[in-house]
């Protein structure tokens, strides 16, 4: 085999690997329930927007403020986040969908009662193993003991993350 053919095959293999890696970064809402009990919404939905606003205000007065934290900051504030629903966001700096979700969370914030913890997909191997995370842009909702209650990919912002957590 000539050196040129070998280089072409190597380049083709690299391109295929890169394409497969980036295809895992799609924005599809693929839900992979972890098999444990799903979390449900504690907030009732009213058909009247005025009643809904009043009800939401009353509920959020007793809820923790929404937060988007790094893993290190979350570990320092765990006690302060008690009572909040915690979702780990496995983020990769090279993932376009991760970047878009990160920007949306920074710009729009996180709904009250929800804490989104940004976890570096490339370095958090222990957490990836613990929660069975195999692709970036994965979200894992955890209970107060740190056990996964739900796992999915593809949420684009805080409202979408909250909706996935609240879905049955």
From TrEMBL:
Residues 33-55 are annotated as: Disordered. It comes from the Bacteria. Keywords: Signal. The keyword Signal applies. PROSITE patterns: PROKAR_LIPOPROTEIN (PS51257), THIOREDOXIN_2 (PS51352). The keyword Signal applies. Residues 1-26 form the signal peptide. Residues 48-168 form the Thioredoxin domain. Pfam families: Thioredoxin. InterPro entries: Thioredoxin-like_sf, Thioredoxin_domain. This is Thioredoxin domain-containing protein. It comes from Nostocoides veronense.
């Amino acid at each position: 085999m000539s050196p040129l053919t070998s280089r072409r095959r190597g380049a083709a293999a690299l391109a295929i690997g890169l394409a497969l890696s980036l295809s895992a970064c799609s924005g599809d809402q693929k839900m992979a329930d972890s098999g444990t009990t799903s979390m449900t919404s504690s907030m009732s939905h009213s058909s009247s927007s005025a009643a809904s606003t009043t009800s939401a205000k009353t509920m959020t007065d007793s809820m923790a403020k929404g937060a988007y934290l790094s893993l290190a900051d979350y570990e320092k504030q765990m006690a302060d986040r008690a009572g909040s629903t915690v979702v780990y966001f496995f983020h990769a700096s090279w993932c376009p969908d991760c970047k878009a979700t990160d920007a949306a969370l920074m710009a729009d914030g996180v709904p009250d009662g929800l804490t989104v913890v940004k976890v570096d997909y490339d370095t958090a191997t222990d957490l990836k193993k613990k929660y069975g995370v195999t692709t970036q842009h994965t979200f894992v909702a955890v209970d107060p003991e740190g056990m996964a209650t739900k796992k999915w990919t593809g949420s684009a912002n805080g409202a979408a993350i909250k909706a996935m957590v609240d879905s049955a």
